[in-house]
Specification:
The complex is a heterodimer. Chain A is an alpha/beta fold. Helix content of chain A is 30%, strand content 23%. Chain A contains eleven helices and twelve strands. In chain A, a hairpin with a 2-residue loop joins strand 1 and strand 2. In chain A, helix 4 crosses helix 5 and helix 5 crosses helix 7. Chain B has a domain of 233 residues: Rossmann fold. Chain B has eleven helices and eleven strands. Chain B has an eight-stranded mixed β-sheet with strand order 5-6-7-3-8-9-11-10, sandwiched between helices. In chain B, strands 2-1-4 form a three-stranded antiparallel β-sheet, covered by helices on one side. In chain B, helix 3 packs parallel to helix 5. Chain B is globular and about 65 Å long. In chain B, 46% of the residues are buried. Classes of the chains: A alpha/beta, B alpha/beta. Chains A and B meet through helix 7, helix 8, helix 9, helix 10 and helix 11 of A and helix 6, helix 7 and helix 9 of B. Chain A: Its main location: membrane. Chain A: One of its GO terms (cellular component) is plasma membrane.
Chain lengths: 336, 335
């Protein structure tokens, strides 16, 4: 979406989990790129492969999981197949990740300060006192009051919101080019979520950090992301600029998902719903469009797995993976 | 919603945990006032939404209503229709039922769907006909195919488990259903299905709901009336439309402003500052004053009473001036 070279370019990513004889394909043909200072929302329901996509980029997929195809280029350099030592140098330095549950992401028996100083000194040859100073400044910047004192606290002494702020601070410490945020506000109260969204917005804007925000919450994406990619059963089914995808969705799944959001259904007697149940694990043999069994527009053509093609809106970068996408006007959501 | 006694009348209920020495003397003297003088009514065929963040006491109130715990002070009064019927009577109600957030944990992993639904009916002698017909009727009413009756919880999806739990609650033909975050753990598309189920069941059974949630849009969609809780107190309660059209309490305003709005693109958040204080040492006066942008000296000292500011619209804030009719004794959230 930007003319400058992308920070991250993912092409044809395929991640499988080999369970005994069966192979489950968690991520299938995922491609996207993200530029400096750009915020991309990666949206999907549980099991859609959004987190595994994030872990694949970070090189955090462990057996039985394997990245079997595709490239992950950070500033043009392929991260896939990089030796562990080189990957360690990049993780936490050029690319960092924020997990959903800060209590398991932080070490329970180390003080916050120690964990932050370690994160800096793993990548920079600075003195302990300098690392301590940087840590304190960063805690202040993510909205933690009296940061100097908090450095000597243990994770259990902080509230959930404060712990997540510490994780965000650690992710930002080495001024990374890319941050992957994996549902970082899902477990938090709504007033705290609003605070963290505001802080993240300001921080990435000030530093030009690219941000991938993995979430199931379309409303959060609407508010912070420039572009959005919607995943279903391992594949991106639609992507494009946030306002285009959310206002003029093209994929039947995106339309169904948006229509199920309660706030879109005020006044109607029932909520609009997607029929059927979601089957996340996709075996290797599965053919055709994964959404077809639940799709109101499915027909014989849908037995062939569709490719991502330009959507009818003609908006730059708006693409859809569907044989029968909604036309530019049809997909417009009617407000009941 | 008629003038008759409401289905549920919660009168000045407080619940205090701890404080009596504790185990081996730990936690001596530390008390958590989970509920502090809460008053709430639920009328016949009424859906009341109870909204609050973690630690607000909303789940505690739900547990008190179904009798899982006893209030430290105050009264919880159920009217004739909502009370449990005489023992061993046929087709009687067992009183209010509750549905929890984690449906998988609420089901015995070793027992089948049929067993789960049948158990309360068998134990309490509610069975009015053949067991199979009873189970089929309930499974049908929550949209579960009868073919699932021999499955165990691990063979079902999260949405299906939630439906089983709802069917089990309906087996006791309650007049009041307490739903404690029943859709929070579900994906958006499944959440819509389960919310529709609640709406359908409301139409079919005429059951009232006390719908507990932290999710304002969900509650807005479902409820006739909403009560907002903060640190053990109800700070505002009003008919749903009035609450969103004109929130009177600064906390309600902050809460509404914090919810990301899907219709709004790329907005800047103006979040309310600070965190929810620990219920172990709540702030003096109005609990919200440390975070309130309008806090005055009086807020630090005096707890504002919950007053009717407009007919049916109650708020507990020193900024709200009750009109003249409130002075004539119309205080407390009457149904």
């Amino acid at each position: 979406m930007t003319s400058s070279p992308p920070v991250l370019e993912v092409k044809g990513l395929r991640t499988e989990f080999h369970m005994g004889r069966s192979r489950l394909c968690a991520v299938n043909d995922v491609s996207f790129s993200i530029g400096r200072g750009e915020v991309m929302g990666l949206v999907g329901e549980s099991g859609s492969g959004k987190s595994v996509t994030g872990y694949s980029i970070m090189g955090l997929v462990d057996p039985p999981g394997h990245i079997v195809d595709g490239t992950i280029r950070l500033h043009g350099k392929d991260l896939r197949g990089l030796p562990e030592r080189q990957m360690n140098a990049i993780r936490g330095d050029r690319v960092s990740i924020i997990f959903q549950d800060p209590m398991t992401a932080l070490h329970p028996t180390l003080r916050i300060g120690q964990q932050m100083i370690d994160a800096i000194r793993a990548h920079r040859s600075v003195s302990r006192s300098e690392a301590w100073r940087r840590s304190r400044d960063m805690l202040g910047r993510v909205g933690i009051p009296s940061p100097g004192e908090r450095l000597s606290a243990y994770p259990h002494q902080l509230s959930g919101g404060m712990r997540q702020r510490v994780c965000i601070a650690i992710a930002l410490l080495n001024d990374p080019d890319l941050i992957i945020a994996d549902e970082p506000t899902t477990g938090l109260d709504v007033t705290i979520q609003a605070q963290i969204l505001a802080e993240m917005q300001a921080l990435v804007a000030a530093r030009g950090t690219a941000l991938i925000w993995v979430t199931h919450d379309l409303a959060v994406v609407a508010n912070i992301a420039d572009s959005v990619a919607v995943m279903y059963a391992g594949s991106i089914v639609e992507r494009g600029p946030t306002d285009v995808v959310l206002r003029r969705p093209s994929s039947p799944y995106t339309v169904g998902l948006l229509n199920s959001v309660p706030s879109r259904n005020q006044g109607a007697s029932r909520l609009s719903q997607i029929p059927g149940t979601y089957t996340p694990a996709v075996s290797e043999e599965a053919v055709g469009c994964r959404f077809a069994p639940r799709c109101p527009r499915a027909d014989d053509a849908c037995t062939v797995f569709p490719a991502l093609t330009a959507a009818a809106t003609g908006a730059p970068g708006h693409e859809v993976r569907c044989h029968h996408p909604y036309a530019a006007r049809e997909g417009r959501l009617s407000h009941v | 919603m008629s003038n008759a006694a409401p289905l549920l009348d919660v009168q000045d209920v407080s619940k205090i945990y701890g404080g009596s020495g504790g185990l081996f003397g730990f936690g001596l003297g530390s008390q958590v006032r989970a509920l502090d003088g809460v008053a709430l009514t639920v009328g016949e065929r009424e859906i009341v939404g109870l909204v609050g963040e973690s630690g607000s006491g909303k789940s505690t109130l739900g547990r008190l209503v179904v009798g899982l715990e006893r209030p430290t002070s105050g009264h919880i009064i159920l009217n004739e229709a909502a009370r449990p019927g005489p023992p061993r009577g046929k087709a009687r109600s067992l009183g209010p039922q509750i549905i929890f957030q984690n449906a998988v944990a609420a089901l015995n992993p070793r027992r089948t769907v049929k067993d789960a639904i049948l158990e309360p009916a068998v134990v309490h002698g509610l069975l009015t006909g053949p067991a199979d017909a009873f189970v089929h009727r309930l499974m049908d009413s929550v949209g579960l195919p009868a073919s699932l009756k021999d499955r165990r919880p691990h063979e079902l999806s999260g949405g299906q488990c939630q439906r089983v739990v709802i069917a089990r609650a309906l087996a006791a033909s309650p007049k009041l259903l307490v739903c404690d975050e029943p859709v929070s753990a579900l994906d958006v598309s499944i959440q819509a299905q389960v919310l529709n189920l609640f709406l359908d069941l409301y139409d079919e059974t005429g059951c009232s709901y006390l719908f507990i949630s932290h999710d304002l849009p969900v509650v807005e969609r479902l409820s006739h009336r909403i009560a907002i809780m903060y640190l053990g107190r109800i700070v505002e309660s009003a008919p749903t439309k009035a609450l969103f059209a004109k929130p009177l309490h600064p906390y309600t305003e902050a809460l509404i402003a914090s919810v990301p709005d899907i219709e709004q693109q790329r907005r800047t958040f103006h979040p309310v500052s600070g965190e929810i204080p620990s219920p172990l040492s709540p702030p003096s006066g109005c609990h919200f004053h440390p975070r309130c942008p309008h806090a005055m000296d009086v807020c630090r000292v005096v707890q504002p009473p919950l007053l009717a500011i407009e007919p049916g619209h109650f708020s507990a804030c020193h900024l709200n001036t009750p009109p003249a009719f409130a002075a004539a004794g119309a205080s407390g959230p009457l149904g």
